[in-house]
Amino acid sequence: MLTILIAEDNDGMADMLVSAVTAHGYEVIRARDGREALQRLRERKIDLVVTDLKLPYKSGLDVLQAAKDQNSLLPVILMTAHGTIETAVKAVRNGAHDFLTKPFDPDHLLLLIQRALEKQRLITENLLLREEAATQLGLPRIIGKHPRVLAVVDQITRVAPSRTTVLLLGESGTGKELFARALHGLSPRRDGAFVAINCAAIPKELLESELFGHERGAFTGATDRRIGKFELADHGTIFLDEIGDLDLGLQSKLLRVLEGEEFCRVGGTARVKIDVRVVAATNKDLRAAIAQHAFREDLFYRLSVLPITIPPLRDRRDDIPALVDYFLSHYCRELKRPLKTLSEGARQVMVNHLWTGNIRELQNCIERAVILTDGEVIEEGHLGIRQQELGEIQAREIPLEGSLHEVSAAATRMAETRMIRKILKQTGGNKSRASQILGVSYKTLLTKIKEYGIERPGVSREGSDPGAMSPAA
To answer: What pLDDT sits at residue 223?
Structure first.
């Protein structure tokens, strides 16, 4: 539910606005003066602000400035009397979404609210998905238009303005750090540091010092005081990658830091206060780790206030061509090579490959192909991967990571893909006949063909019925 802050000192007017806005499914927070409005902005995640221009203690312009300082994309609608229209117009030039002159119809306000929220959603999505906009604001570019990717973008957008701890879940190579950086870039902490640390890459004996720092003489070789990652991330964001590999002892200390927002450096007694947004990530099933007493349940719940699952590349095959083109352009530019293209055969291999290493594997594949290809066209042989149809995937290749539901879904997908390919080959690509044999509707079969990225099974179109697969099916 989206939250709207209404700052209005007139009780009758405020009651009318709260009633109208609440009736349309929004959560409303009421502020009776400017000072209270500023306090609510600090305390709560606000999606939109409606404020009177003239308020006790602090003005609507002060509320506008505070909202924009917290989140430059936060929409603010000003309410004004006739005598202050010029001031309201100036406020719009300084970032307010719009203004309303009293008296006004509540339906007009609701229309402005809907438009402002939709505009904010589109701007944020474009910042993440368009390279030029992302580059301009220093945000990472997220490539893809698959519904699951857009759902992740929406979740990141909603949680970014808050201090909420986020747990990113997904297989290795799916881009969890990319999304963590996007979350930081869209947050009020964007001017602070983004500090990333891989909890699995550092020996546990050294990891505590890396996280929290140490005092001089804390251990052999500690010749000077060292500032840890948490201190470096003060007023910013710390990204704890591979959190599932964290030692149990450090899990306990991390939990205390998350709850108390303070810690002692290794070998020290002074309490260090911090203000840090924590984003964690793992490719492990933490619930299974809890059952095996390898991960603290209390820490899990503290980290997973908002869990967000990044989909594997095999579940968003429609995005592969866009990813291929992006990395192809990037590495041709970086390696100072003429812009290359992929042959149809090579492109088809890319779409059909399993990509167990996800986007990281695809990225490495493109970089290697750009280096090894002398001509302008990258052929199948330059990719260095075996052409692999989804239907040929063996049971041993089912990824045994994630929850039981995720593993089951992957196995089902592989089995269905193999069966559909087999029947389509038997019917010479006749989808109408194939749907009858498979016992599903024609529409269901078409949906699965598109979802699984199943291509035409090497049969001629001549002589086939209108239900036969086209090259683009």
So the answer is: 77
Q: Buried b vs exposed e over 99-121: b needs ≥16 C-beta within 10 Å?
A: bbeeeeeeeebbebbeebbeebb
Residues 6+ apart with CB under 8 A from 80: 52, 53, 54, 60, 87, 88, 99, 100, 101, 102
Work out the end-to-end distance of the chain between its first and last CA atoms, rounded to an integer number of angstroms: 39
- The contacts of residue 357 (CB under 8 Å, 6+ apart) are 172, 173, 364
Cα 394 from Cα 312, distance rounded (Å): 18
CA distance 211 to 227: 9
In angstroms, rounded to a whole number, what is the distance separating the alpha carbons of residues 316 and 301? Answer: 29
State both tokens at 446. Answer: 């078409």
Could you give the CA distance from residue 459 to residue 456 in angstroms, rounded to a whole number? Answer: 7
3-state SS, residue 197? strand
Please name the helix (run of DSSP H) or strand (run of DSSP E) that holds residue 237, with its range, or none.
strand 237-241
DSSP string, 120-171: HHHHHHHHHH-HHHHHHTTPPP-----HHHHHHHHHHHHHTTS---EEEE--
Tokens matching residue 135: 């580059």
Collapse the DSSP code of 112 into the 3-class scheme (helix H, G, I; strand E, B; otherwise coil) and give the result. helix
H or E segment at 320? helix 320-334
Question: What domains lie within the chain, and their CATH numbers?
Answer: 3-126 (3.40.50.2300), 147-309 (3.40.50.300), 313-388 (1.10.8.60), 400-473 (1.10.10.60)
Q: Is residue 240 a contact partner of residue 198, using CB atoms and an 8 Å limit?
A: no
Q: Count CB atoms within 10 A of the CB of residue 29.
A: 18
**How high is the mean pLDDT of the chain?**
82
* Residue among 288, 250, 290 at smallest CA distance from 405: 288
> Cα-atom radius of gyration of the chain, to the nearest Å?
27
Give the angle subtended at the CA of 209 by the CAs of 203 and 215, to the nearest 5°: 145
Q: How confident is the model at residue 258 (pLDDT cuts 50, 70, 90)?
A: very high
CA angle, corner 129, sides to 125 and 134, nearest 5? 95
CA neighbor of 50 nearest in space, from 12, 91, 79:
79
Q: Is the per-residue pLDDT at 7 higher than 90?
A: yes
Per DSSP, the three-state class of 401 is coil
Q: How much is the pTM?
A: 0.59
